[in-house]
Design brief:
The protein contains five helices and no strands. It is mostly helical.
Length: 153
């Protein structure tokens, strides 16, 4: 299945086919750039609000929740409203927001809590992050669609 903003790597009959790296190179570059921006923002949040040993990792929790809410808004706007350049979605959706939200830090935080003898906090963090992130993306998507529908009336 292809998405509208991606181009087929198969060239039309009678045209020279360009190498796959030429077609995918710009996509990889903008994902990398966006990922660096998102990961830097996430790291800054962890420095600003460091987790206490054995404590609930609030910075990672809120980073994931806010990132999921932004993903909800972005996906509605990019699919329902705005015919953006083909590199916007890979840059912002995959790169920036993918680098900002973090499953790996979430998993490491859980492991650290368990290793440090705080399995209840780890379990609470595991469940709370999952529930809050999914709720955030759902609410943001629904709210964005409602606002857009209201503005069209």
């Amino acid at each position: 299945m292809t998405t509208p903003e991606t181009q087929s790597l198969r060239a039309p009959a009678g045209t020279a086919r360009q190498p796959a790296w030429r077609a995918q190179g710009p996509v990889v570059a903008v994902v990398a750039l966006g990922g660096a921006i998102g990961a830097t923002a996430r790291y800054a949040a962890s420095l600003w609000w460091p987790a206490q040993q054995g404590g609930f990792p609030w910075a990672t929790f809120w980073t994931n929740v806010v990132g999921c809410a932004v993903i909800g808004v972005f996906m509605v706007v990019i699919t329902d409203v705005w015919a953006a350049h083909r590199l916007v979605r890979p840059f912002f959706g995959t790169g920036v927001l993918g680098g900002f939200t973090t499953f790996s830090t979430y998993a490491v935080d859980i492991q650290k809590l368990v290793d440090d003898g705080h399995p209840r906090t780890a379990l609470a963090y595991l469940a709370a992050t999952l529930i809050a992130a999914l709720t955030a993306v759902w609410l943001a998507t629904a709210a964005t669609r409602r606002v857009l529908k209201w503005r069209q009336q």
